[in-house]
Amino acid sequence: MDDVDAVQAQISRHMLTSGDWVTARLDGVAYLEKPPFHYWVTAGFYALFGVRDWAGRLPYALSAIALALLTTAFGIWAFGKKAGFYAGLVMATCVGVFLFTRILIPDVMLTFTIALAMWAFLRALEREEKNPRLWAAILAASLGIGLLLKSLVGIVFPVASALIYLTFTRQLFTRATWKRLHPFSGALIVLLIAVPWHVLATLRNPPYFYSSFHSGPGEYHGFLWFFFMNEQILRFLNLRYPRDYNTVPRLYFWLFHFLWLFPWSVYLPAVAKLSLKPVDRAGKTRLLAMCWLGFLLIFFTFSTTQEYYSMPSYPAFALLLGSAMAAQGDWTRRGTRVLCAVVAGEAIAAIAILILVRHVPTPADISVALGYHPSAYTLSLGHMEDLTIQSFAYLRPPLVVAVVAFLIGVAGTLRWRGERAYLATALMMVVFFHAARLALVVFDPFLTSRPLAEAILKSPDGQVILGKPYYEFSSVLFYTNRDALILNGRYNNLEYGSYAPGAPDVFIDDSRMQALWKGRTRYYLIAEAGQVPGFMSLLGPEQLTLVAESGGKAVLTNHPLPGKTVSAAP
């Protein structure tokens, strides 16, 4: 469990153990940013399998599989078996889905609900559909669950896409359309699913009503204002506080989709040749997919955005790509040739890196060879900037597997066209994802603090103190199942909840830290290696005993341990 992932995992654990399924909490502090549905799902898996790291990841892995199967079924219904299979292949093996489902964020679940809503929308409108009321109900249920997954975007994205589609097809103001969509019973379903939690969260986290467009430090205005005004409106306007996020530059946000949809993005030019005329089921689906991805991408062009925010558009891209790949026109053949050249270049680059680092030593773990770019860490892939040539010496086995994957891709796309080339490309991605998994194992000491947690569990009981904000070392608390005091960390995600009435006193300053450290109670301080000299100055080198170090992080205690030296720096 990475230090970022463990935050979500801890919230789910708290819900399960406390019985409070309404208010998310971290370290006892109200965490009011997100709706609870994905926490509920994870807590349910904990109830079934126990609180384990793999149990926390399982819902997201299953959601990714379900999304690929749903996209396949949608594509088969719309275009036929071959195009549907290709659409599912795109969804299952594109880079973006792999990258953004290895972290515990609800976006893959949200993407599933939006894709299901879009399919249900078309099924309800289909004149040959025998049970449009059922599909209208599925549409409404998807919207309700979407609200509980990511709030307003869970309903805005599919509804806006559907309205744009109805406008283009001149069905927006026809009575038959709304008769088949059953908007009143659908609205009732949405309300029944989503309203109870919103009401309970408001009642349990007063004040109930507050009106202001200002968001700043030291303020607490209850759940309702924070959840809707601060997290929805002010975030969209880039006025939200705390400013613990960044935004991808607009041009990069658009261009990155060639990477997120790789390797299948080489076939995007072929999509331009597809007919969008809504004269048959295929044309209607392609038009809806264009409305769907077009609205979402334009929406985030005018909003703050992270790299993964556009994931709900991936099924729309996959449907269009699957349809284009099944057509096998000139542009798909050209796309295959481009893919062959790109993958060949990747193979050459990987081999060149292997040659460059063949004699580079690999002491300790990979953290000693990485750079440090904290200004980039507010982006989800900010740590990619930390890679150096020296760090690739630790990644020799993954690089070898990646070379094998690229050679499979080169051979398949050079020799074949059409379906065989697609299957060879998919096989390449499966092997490449295995290489990525091996690389993540190498990065594990840097991404997680689990070794520090294991060292604490083997040591005498004591209170944990975090030398940086909760997010930085959250996996320590997950694996030790302990709360912590947080030194000079009253900002970012926990700041707002920390000012709520009755919030626990878990934030400490330097003077309180000094007093606690000199007492008889044992404390374990979690810090980055670069912070240790500062703690030597604050607490005194004779008061610091090194317990363990891993991944550029260390755990120190204020009382001697058997077999441990009283020492400062790791």
Q: Which term fits the overall shape?
A: globular
Q: Which structural category fits the helices and strands?
A: mainly alpha
Poorly predicted segments: none
User: What is the strand tally?
Assistant: 8
Largest sheet: 6 strands, mixed
Number of domains: 3
Note the beta-strand portion: 5-15%
Spatial strand arrangement across the major sheet: 5-4-3-6-8-7
Percent helix, as a range, is 55-70%
Mean pLDDT: 93
Could you tell me how far the N terminus lies from the C terminus, measured between alpha carbons in angstroms?
24 Å
Rg computed from alpha carbons, rounded to a whole number of angstroms: 26 Å
Structural write-up:
By secondary structure, the chain is mainly alpha-helical. It folds into three domains: 296 residues, no CATH class; 118 residues, no CATH class; 108 residues. The protein is 58% helix and 5% strand. It is built from 24 helices and eight strands. The protein has a six-stranded mixed sheet. A hairpin with a 2-residue loop joins strand 1 and strand 2. The two termini are 24 Å apart.
